[in-house]
Specification:
Organism: Aliarcobacter cibarius
CATH superfamily: Glutaredoxin
GO molecular function, one term: antioxidant activity
Largest sheet: 8 strands, mixed
Number of helices: 5
Strand order of the largest sheet: 4-3-2-7-6-5-9-10
Pfam families: AhpC-TSA
Strand content: 25-35%
CATH topology: Glutaredoxin
Protein name: Protein disulfide reductase, TlpA family
CATH architecture: 3-Layer(aba) Sandwich
Keywords: Redox-active center
């Protein structure tokens, strides 16, 4: 029984600290500093709810036109990633508890997923926030400095500045602490 418990704890710990490595770069650190290498780019991202997000990245800011003056939790993920799936309940909870101040937007980094497959995934996990998808999501990932592992989460303040970048699984309490700091300003 102890071996089984130890094995489960070890697997969860690995997922927590590593996230899911991208194919282009094996990195398993849980980096939380903001990298200063965002390039200027404009993007139109389709979302599962049928809306289009206009995103502009420049001067270490991520502007989302329809979400100006809102806090944004921008989460890069994939449906096959175990750590991404573990993180979903925290994102759902954040969207519920801070719905007046915050918007969660997930960016799917997966090719060849149909709308139906993405909708089924969202339904299965009770996702209540925006999911963007399509080829432009990969370009956005490059424009924000590259996504070395997933999940990767950006916490964006009301002025479109990057308050925090978290690589790997982000527990609810970790994101909430940053949100509270921004709201107190």
């Amino acid at each position: 029984m102890q071996i089984k418990t130890l094995a489960i704890f070890s697997i969860f710990s690995i997922l927590f600290f590593a996230g899911c490595d991208s194919k282009e770069n094996k990195q398993n650190d849980n980096q939380t500093k903001v990298e200063q290498n965002i390039t200027k780019s404009d993007f139109l991202l389709n979302t599962l709810d049928g809306s289009v997000l206009e995103i502009k990245t420049e001067n270490n800011k991520i502007h989302i036109k329809s979400l100006e003056n809102k806090l944004v939790v921008l989460n890069f993920f994939a449906t096959w990633c175990p750590a991404c799936k573990v993180e979903i309940p925290a994102l759902v909870r954040l969207q519920n508890e801070y719905k007046n101040d915050l918007v969660v937007v997930s960016v799917l980094l997966e090719e060849f997923k149909s709308d139906e497959e993405i909708k089924n995934f969202a339904k299965e996990f009770g996702i209540n926030y925006k999911i963007s998808y399509g080829s432009e999501t990969f370009d956005l990932a490059k424009a924000v400095g590259g996504i070395k592992s997933i999940p990767t989460t950006f916490i964006i303040d009301r002025e479109a500045g990057i308050h925090q970048k978290i690589q790997g699984l982000a527990p609810y309490e970790m994101i909430e602490t940053d949100i509270k700091k921004i709201l107190e300003k």
